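Researcher: Quick test of sequence recovery. Tokens follow.
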């Protein structure tokens, strides 16, 4: 029973370290690096958690302002290589 409990605690600890909320724009390699860093330094996530609490985007009424506060906006840019599909304007 003790061994199963230790396995559960260890697996929960590892799973939690890889469920870190990253800011928009960070790639998967940064997420993996941050996950491994949080295994050895569990309090490293306090910075990201405090930023999420500081934003308080859930309290914003306007959906666009809420998305902007949450860092969920992106810009779509047309390149010179883009060509419309047949039937597009």
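Model:
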């Amino acid at each position: 029973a003790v061994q199963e409990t230790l396995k559960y605690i260890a697996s929960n600890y590892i799973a939690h370290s890889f469920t870190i909320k990253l800011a928009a724009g960070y790639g998967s390699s940064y997420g993996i690096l941050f996950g491994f860093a949080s295994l050895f330094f569990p309090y490293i996530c306090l910075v990201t958690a405090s930023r999420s609490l500081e934003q308080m985007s859930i309290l914003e009424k306007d959906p666009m302002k809420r998305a902007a506060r949450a860092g969920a906006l992106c810009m779509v840019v047309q390149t010179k290589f883009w060509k419309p599909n047949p039937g597009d304007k």
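The mean pLDDT is 83.
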